[in-house]
Amino acid sequence: MKNIKYHLAEDTIDDRDIDKLAAWLKSYPRLTKGALTVEFEEGWSKWLGVKYSVFNNSGSSANLLMYYALLLSGRLKNKKVIVPSVGWVTSIAPAIQFGFEPIMCEADKDTYGLDLVHLEKLLKKHRPGAVMMVQVLGVPHKMNEMLALQKKYGFYLMEDACAAIGAYYKDRKVGTFGDMASFSFYFGHQFSTIEGGMVSTDDKKLYDLLLMLRAHGWSKDLDKPAHAALTKKYKIDDFHSPFVFYIPGFNVRSTDLNAFIGLGQLAKLDSIIDARERNHRRFKERLATRLAYQRSPGASRICSIHFGALAKDREERRKIVKALEEHGIETRIFSAGNLGLHPFWYERYGKASFPMADRIHHTGFFLPNHPSLSLEDVDFICDVVLGAMK
Fold it and tell me: Which helix (H) or strand (E) holds 135?
């Protein structure tokens, strides 16, 4: 699009952040992973309210690490995993890459997360070892019901909160419900470290696996007791221990440069959350009677990266998108729509078509939401949408 006035996303790394980064670089610091990465991980864990976090190079890598840590943990009763129809490809791709048996679930009519009725049917039929859920766009899912199903059917829960930083279900932050949770610090998400992701957990054994998987499968990042336990178990000469590979890992580390940016973003995160929540609320106030949109459970706090809405049909979506483009307002379809209608899925498992996920696929679209937008900007965007629907 030419002459975009309202971008779908804006960078949360501002001029002051760049100035601070430039001054830090002039001190000629260590740039690769080091002490600042650990400081950022600890700061993130404290803010989120969990025990452990592992900084890596993207939210997609965070999902990759979660899947493989579960697989290598030896805890799974089988390799069946329930996956969402609405989300992002890398919420599902690791299941395929690691030889899981992914089973796709319909989308909830309110939050667009996993449909809990369909999920329970799948749980009864397949008894999977794991469930991957997405907190879609920063709108919290129905977590009391989700945790009740986990208790009833005994699966490990991976919580993809990549686009949901700062959202709350009741008085609890999203990303603290799963056995592990992933977050993305990509441009356009709640905040950015240029590229980056995090996995958070309260489980020490999973944490140790995540640390090793992030960097080659070695034990250099483990605490002394965990490292000593491995050298004892495998009778390793400690002279060689820094370069002994215990599991088949990756190299998905981030850097202290990204961590430096992340620490600055963390310091202003609460104000970013407030702005996103304020804008999302105004979109709802203006559009609620004309468009379908994500609805959160009561007493939740939404922190969305975009305002996701559904037109009544494809033709209405085309009219809205055309009007938005004519007024310099950037938009796109709703996430990836139904992932069961993408070649990566149907070439392997056949098309997975569901009423709600298909509706999102064919009629969904995004409106901008970021801290740079004022309420007047939001009102203008809403006026354009409503004008296109006359």
Answer: none
